[in-house]
Amino acid sequence: MISTRLSSFVARASLTFSRSISSAASGDVVVKEEHPYVYHLKLNRDKKMNTFTMDMWKEFKNAIDGLAENPKCRSIVISGEGRAFCAGIDIAGGMMEIVNIIQDDSIEFGRKGRKVRNMIGTIQDCFTALEKCPKPIIAAVHSYCIGAGIDLITACDIRVASQDAVFSIKEVDVGLAADIGTLNRIQKVVGNDSWTRELAFTARDFGVDEALKFGLISRIYANPKDTVNAALDLAKTISEKSPIAVQGTKETLNYARNHPTDQSLDFIKTWNMSQLLSTDLMNSAMAIMNKKKATFEPISGTMFNTGKFVGRTALITGASRGIGKEIALKLAKDGANIVIAAKTATAHPKLPGTIYTAAEEIEKAGGKALPCIVDVRDETSVKKAVEDAVKKFGGIDILINNASAISLTNTEDTEMKRYDLMHSINTRGTYLMTKTCLPYLKQGKNPHVLNISPPLLMEPRWFSNHVAYTMAKYGMSMCVLGHHEEFKPYGIAVNALWPLTAIWTAAMEMLSNKEGEAGSRKPEIMADAAYAILSKNSKDFTGQFLIDQDVLRAEGVTDFDRYACVPGHELMPDFFIPGKYDAHFGFGKKSSSKKNHEKAVIKEEITQVLESVKSILNAEIVKSVGTVYTFELTGENPRRITVDLKNGTGAIFEGASDKATVTMTMADSDFAPLFQGKLKPSAAFMAKKLKISGDLSAALKLENVLKKMNSKL
Questions:
Q1: Residues belonging to the active site
Q2: Could you give the CA distance from residue 503 to residue 507 in angstroms, rounded to a whole number?
Q3: CA–CA distance from 656 to each of 34, 639, 659, 660 (Å)?
């Protein structure tokens, strides 16, 4: 997930998100950058022959999802450490959760079935992530590749193996049909139905020669080391190609495998419609002409128009012009169905554009459009628009609450009619539209709600000059706070997006008397940021307050001049954005207000850690550790904190202790991440972020101590 400076700051400063300490990674999956743009993922449970547990499945998926979004990753190699590539599932660690559900007589039969189904779905998602990852993935197989190992490699793009590799679809021998992907993918991989049925029915072993003959693997190497090295060389070759072209090729091959030829031709047409305009094409052509090697900008695959929104329906309020229309056009280029929900059936004398002119542009861009006259304040009007959308397109997958009313007037000058208008459109309209779409979002494909609203910074300056407007906009953001948690069980993402700078639209032009364009950006930056957000997995990417530039930076975008109305001109920060930003689109010198807030955020994080740890201390932890740690924190919040894991049932308190076995010195900003599993003590020590004095052997226990604590939180 993107963790922007501002969104994380906002969430804690407003004291609305309580953060628990997350469990640290187990080390069963290790990821390393082997060459520029080439990453190597190792299964690292040699003692158990790299068999999967539930925790390992989750860790594996998180690693793949991270590489999918990492703009510096262009190709991936997966191998197994030690005696085997993967010998399947660890029965004790990978099946017991399901067995426990089945054997629990307190759970009604139907509910048992649903729980088991959901758990199997979670495991399936682990290997489906390999297909969804836009980067090519090469499996380097050695020794045993059994059961879940076959599930894994059939979801990869390329498979190579060492001479000692042995394969088996083993599930029938343990009384199961293979349910994690092998039966669904292997026939498409090898194309021989009789052979795959023989393997699945008999669970017999087969070697590399047979695997090569029938197309399960493409090459054989003498030993495991040569196999991994060959896979890395192949990945390096792929990484030197245009990432847009390579990832487009993978997306198209995957789509073509599951769709008729005419549909897949439409898919590549949609893809190349935007990619023919990319700088990669020009770079490649110039490199060929000059007989040089082409270089390409590192950028995440989520930024490309890939057809991932084909057939999905997005309802966008206020989409007849401005930011709403730009987001609609961006999604339309990907083949999305767009419901244009707005009041503008006829053109405004000063604001060009109607729902009908917007619909024409959307159709030309490659999408399907449904213009709906909607007053978001009126329940009947909203229900009709939603019903019309479902009738025409079959459902709703995305809701973008963009409609908004603005009046930058102080209290004396704000008429109650204007106050009511802003609150009924901004807050009530957002809530009503979300409530009405909810039944269909529950059934949607990767469902998202995106509110165009600001981070909740409770600073007087955002209220003092236009309290009515701020309250109305913050009402939209408060919907994010509540709805993201409420809708999480349904897998519906709810996020907020806000621009870093002023965005130049027709409305902005009218409000500013045509002044300020030079210091503004084009609405395309918000459209690109929204596209990236809506491309994320809705089950994981939710509850965030996001800033357009931070989103795009995380996707590898470095050239922000292309979004400027006048490149190089100093930009105007938008409302609700703290600190000063310079003309190069980065944070300038921090204001004292921002410094104070960041200091408050760190202090609050430390307080939350103290409370969380205090709640789980017990005699069992104390008995297993037997050490007293004192932390010397430096920085904006200098303080001493002692964690007593030697006496009684344990304690954590402010101040030093003369009984401390170990003293650890670190920045105050690193204290909370250390306990949240985001910063490992060993890594912090190697990076010189952590200074240790005292009993070094006791200090080395800290990593395991934190892991034990995290498992109980």
A1: 469
A2: 10
A3: 43, 9, 9, 8
pLDDT tens-digit readout, 372-404: 999 999 999 999 999 999 999 999 999 999 999
Per DSSP, helices labelled H in 133-214 are: 148-154, 182-190, 193-202, 208-213
The C-alpha atoms of residue 522 and residue 534 are separated, in whole angstroms, by 20
Q: Which of 641, 610, 625 shows the shortest CA–CA distance to 695? A: 625
Geometric angle at alpha carbon 121, from 133 and 451, rounded to 5°? 65
Strands 651-654 and 639-645: antiparallel
Residue that the structure tokens 């190089």 belong to: 568
For 521, the token pair is 């950006």
Judge contact between 137 and 76, C-beta under 8 A.
Answer: yes
Q: Which CA distances in Å does 635 have to 449, 598, 599, 667?
A: 39, 12, 9, 6
| Cβ pair 499, 526 in contact under 8 A | yes
- Within a 10 A sphere around the Cβ of 583, how many other Cβ atoms? 14
For residue 222, the SS3 value is coil
The HSE-up count of residue 336 (CA atoms within 13 Å, CB side) is 29
Judge whether 419 and 471 are in contact, CB under 8 Å: no
Q: Are 128 and 136 in contact (CB under 8 A)?
A: no
**437 or 556, higher pLDDT:** 437
